[in-house]
């Protein structure tokens, strides 16, 4: 949502300096801090969480981390690229369905058919478009490449025609709605509203076994860390700078001789790939993928987590997504009747009082501490101006 | 430099993943047995049961009434001394009309709260989502809503009607009235699509024609086109499997198009007393419904149930078929536990066959093989007072046949 109001003089809630300054200019301290952060995150995810949480809670955390993967992608496309992607459910769904189709076929055994096809479709043989998914060598790459291909196709059309802002958001929503209608209509081959459920195995491992569930959690935690590392690389590269520039002033970037459409396309495709991977890992973690997980409402919920956390930062979207998902579970267990009101209240408070998300609290605190010292930290003046411009486009 | 760091971090992460994967190799899918179930915690002087219904979202309006009647049964049982001398402690969770949330909450009730049984779910999608959870943990679910059949999980008891106790009798009734052509209107999800498949097979074998079939997305309120198609189709009756709000728009449109219950009756399978109130009696008067229970069903057991419900929740609250089935499910579980003399799931399942209960709808009997219950089918007509009165019933309880194996015309369906 690009606001047309002029920039407020205050920079409260601006993204943390280190996240805006490109890596080439920030000192070794930033890299060290990042490495320490990753080590801390890894220790938390791989050592503390498995020890502290019951099997049930760990499985829930695995689910939250999948949502966080989508959030990392949205952080890049929306927070950095200014594209309000309100249809990430589509890519999440493509990845999820690709994985679930493979696992259903693996459960059915060679030559077998998923149970629901006989029940609802009365099919005698597997539909042609299901067949390639029997092979893991097709299905696994497809979980990421299929969403990326769709994003590439859509993005190429949309960004070249300079569709942006609310129009882009509406378009991505429409895509999510269309995909849900398509899936529900084809009940015999897609499972309809039920989706693909009752997934037993994961590449030969029995998903009912808590030990294997734990393994799935470790894979998810590892992939999330890897995606974060990738996102950090992207943000701190020359491309990452260009992306922020496109967000803040597309015309000016075009005037300088770059093609803003390609710059946005890359971010959109990367975000789609991350959402696809998240969907693929969601399936073994939760055991279900259905149209209810990929429509308009879940697509908006992905974005809400990012907004709550702070979209322009690296960690904000991840923490926001996990926090919102966790709050959802905790509130609904404690107040089964009224928790939706509390959830709504939380969003209103964050959006009204912390437009930069929870991450802006951190930035605010740090600026208070640092005070005039800030300029000595290698925080160049142009970048600071850019930060305040970014604020103007909230 | 930064590229180097990224690689190191990535390598570190990958090593961790590999290490974790190597240390954590659980059972393969080819292994026999699988995970042992979670045993319910019955050590104290109470026994916990889970109530899993949507208290928020689109399904809340229907599912809250089911929650209310389960609570009524629990309170009645507790007042009468509990089950095996233990008071029932209900633990409620909100499924939020969201299928994966149902799965999450089911897992929580079973493995964190260690309940002895769970009562709830409404939509087929939510049941399909929780089914693997109950099967994995070898825990019990009592499902109280009519559904599309074609399912028989060893860990689910189905206390609502399956297709041969609701849809097939509805069609038999239309056939007996001399109806030769029907138009099918439904919401776009599993129950209507499967039900309509069964209706088409029935029609083909019984000399009826299906002159049209239309689906509207769940929650849709645009019925101008569909009603026009129904009107011009010349059908003698409409079989309606719409759910929720869509019914309001459909029946308003139906009436304003000049279609009447006398000329072209609509048989609905998802409209009960609660929904009649919401849609408006003026639109529904004279239309038909197919269920197993109505608030007006005669009998002392129903008189007691209706009076107790109204005393607890208000005189203006109607009772309906899913509410009754949910109420019955708690009593059936109690009877099974008492017959087994234990809360143990396998023992409870083992003694389930032949358990009877003098329910508000009449005598019901559990069929141990299918884990469904024998129920009397009832066709009703909506009256001006918003209540539904019976116009036909099957005379005796119909044995459940979820896969329609005893119906020759249905041989191609499952």
From TrEMBL, chain A:
It comes from the Bacteria. The chain crosses the membrane at residues 34-53, 59-78, 137-159, 166-185, 215-235, 265-290, 302-327, 339-365. It is a multi-pass membrane protein. GO terms for molecular function: branched-chain amino acid transmembrane transporter activity. Keywords: Cell membrane, Membrane, Transmembrane, Transmembrane helix. Pfam families: BPD_transp_2. Its main location: membrane. It is found in: Cell membrane. GO terms for cellular component: plasma membrane. Residues 1-25, 372-394 are annotated as: Disordered. NCBIfam families: urea_trans_UrtC (TIGR03408). This is Urea ABC transporter membrane protein. It comes from Micromonospora tulbaghiae. The gene is urtC.
Automatic annotation (TrEMBL), chain B:
PROSITE patterns: PROKAR_LIPOPROTEIN. Coiled coil: none annotated. Keywords: Signal. InterPro entries: ABC_urea-bd_UrtA, Peripla_BP_I. Residues 1-20 form the signal peptide. It holds the Pfam family Peripla_BP_5. This is Urea ABC transporter substrate-binding protein. It comes from Micromonospora tulbaghiae. The lineage of its organism: Bacteria, Bacillati, Actinomycetota, Actinomycetes, Micromonosporales.
């Amino acid at each position: 949502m690009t606001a047309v109001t002029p920039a407020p003089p205050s920079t409260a809630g601006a993204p943390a300096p280190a996240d805006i300054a490109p890596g080439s200019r920030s000192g070794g301290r930033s890299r060290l801090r990042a490495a320490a952060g990753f080590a801390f995150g890894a220790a938390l995810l791989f050592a503390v969480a498995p020890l502290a949480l019951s099997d049930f809670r760990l499985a829930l955390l695995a689910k939250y981390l999948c949502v966080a993967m989508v959030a990392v992608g949205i952080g890049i496309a929306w927070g950095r690229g200014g594209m309000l992607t309100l249809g990430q459910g589509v890519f999440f769904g493509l990845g999820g369905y690709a994985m679930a189709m493979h696992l259903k076929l693996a459960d059915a055994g060679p030559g077998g058919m998923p149970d629901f096809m006989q029940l609802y479709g009365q099919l005698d043989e597997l539909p042609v478009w299901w067949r390639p998914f029997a092979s893991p060598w097709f299905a696994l790459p497809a979980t990421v490449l299929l969403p990326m291909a769709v994003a590439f196709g859509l993005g190429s059309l949309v960004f070249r025609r300079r569709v942006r802002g609310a129009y882009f958001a509406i378009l991505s929503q429409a895509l999510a709605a269309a995909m849900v209608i398509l899936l529900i209509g084809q009940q015999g081959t897609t499972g309809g509203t039920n989706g693909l459920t009752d997934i037993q195995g994961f590449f030969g491992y029995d998903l009912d076994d808590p030990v294997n569930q734990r393994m799935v959690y470790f894979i998810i935690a590892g992939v999330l860390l890897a995606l974060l590392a990738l996102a950090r690389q992207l943000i701190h590269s020359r491309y990452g700078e260009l992306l922020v520039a496109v967000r803040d002033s597309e015309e000016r970037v075009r005037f300088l001789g770059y093609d803003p459409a390609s710059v946005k396309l890359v971010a959109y495709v990367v975000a789609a790939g991350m959402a696809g991977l998240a969907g693929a890992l969601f399936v073994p973690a939760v055991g279900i993928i259905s149209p209810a997980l990929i429509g308009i409402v879940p697509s908006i919920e992905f974005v809400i987590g990012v907004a709550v956390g702070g979209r322009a930062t690296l960690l904000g979207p991840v923490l926001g997504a996990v926090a919102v998902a966790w709050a959802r579970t905790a509130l609904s267990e404690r107040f089964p009747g009224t928790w939706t009101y509390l959830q709504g209240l939380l969003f209103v408070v964050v959006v009204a009082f912390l437009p930069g998300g929870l991450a802006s609290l951190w930035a605010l605190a740090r600026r208070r501490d640092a005070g005039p010292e800030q300029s000595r930290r290698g925080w160049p003046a142009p970048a600071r101006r850019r930060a305040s411009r970014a604020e103007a486009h909230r | 430099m930064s590229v180097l760091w990224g690689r190191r971090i990535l390598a570190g992460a990958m090593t961790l993943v590999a290490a974790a994967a190597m240390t954590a190799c659980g059972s393969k899918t080819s292994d026999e047995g699988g995970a042992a179930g979670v045993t319910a915690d019955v050590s104290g002087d109470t026994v916990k049961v889970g109530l899993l219904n949507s208290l928020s979202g689109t399904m809340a309006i229907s599912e809250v009434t089911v929650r209310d009647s389960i609570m009524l049964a629990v309170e009645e049982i507790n007042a009468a001394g509990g089950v095996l001398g233990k008071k029932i402690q209900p633990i409620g969770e909100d499924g939020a009309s969201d299928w994966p949330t149902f799965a999450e909450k089911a897992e929580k009730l079973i493995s964190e709260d260690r309940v002895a049984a769970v009562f709830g779910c409404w939509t087929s999608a939510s049941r399909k989502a929780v089914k693997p959870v109950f099967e994995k943990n070898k825990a019990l679910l009592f499902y109280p809503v009519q559904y599309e059949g074609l399912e028989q999980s060893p860990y689910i008891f189905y206390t609502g009607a399956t297709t041969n106790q609701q849809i097939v009798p509805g069609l038999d009734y239309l056939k007996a009235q001399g109806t030769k052509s029907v138009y099918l209107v439904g919401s776009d999800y599993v129950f209507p699509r499967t039900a309509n498949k069964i209706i088409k097979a029935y029609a083909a074998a019984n000399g009826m024609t299906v002159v049209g079939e239309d689906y509207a997305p769940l929650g849709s309120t645009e019925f101008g086109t569909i009603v026009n198609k129904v009107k011009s189709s010349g059908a003698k009756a409409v079989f309606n499997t719409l759910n929720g709000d869509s019914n309001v728009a459909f029946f308003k449109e139906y009436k304003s198009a000049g279609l009447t219950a006398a000329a072209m009756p609509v048989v609905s399978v998802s409209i009960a007393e609660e929904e009649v109130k919401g849609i408006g009696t003026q639109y529904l008067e004279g239309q038909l419904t197919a269920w197993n229970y109505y608030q007006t069903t005669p009998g002392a057991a129903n008189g007691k149930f209706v009076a107790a419900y109204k005393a607890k929740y208000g005189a203006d609250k109607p009772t309906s078929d899913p509410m009754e089935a949910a109420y019955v499910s708690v009593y059936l579980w109690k009877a099974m536990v008492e017959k087994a003399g234990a809360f143990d799931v396998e023992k409870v399942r083992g003694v389930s066959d032949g358990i009877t209960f003098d329910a508000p709808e009449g005598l019901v009997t559990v069929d141990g093989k299918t884990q469904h219950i024998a129920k009397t089918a009832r066709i009703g007509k909506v009256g001006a007072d918003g209540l539904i009165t019976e116009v036909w019933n099957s005379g005796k309880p119909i044995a459940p046949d979820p896969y329609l194996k005893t119906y020759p015309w249905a041989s191609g369906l499952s």
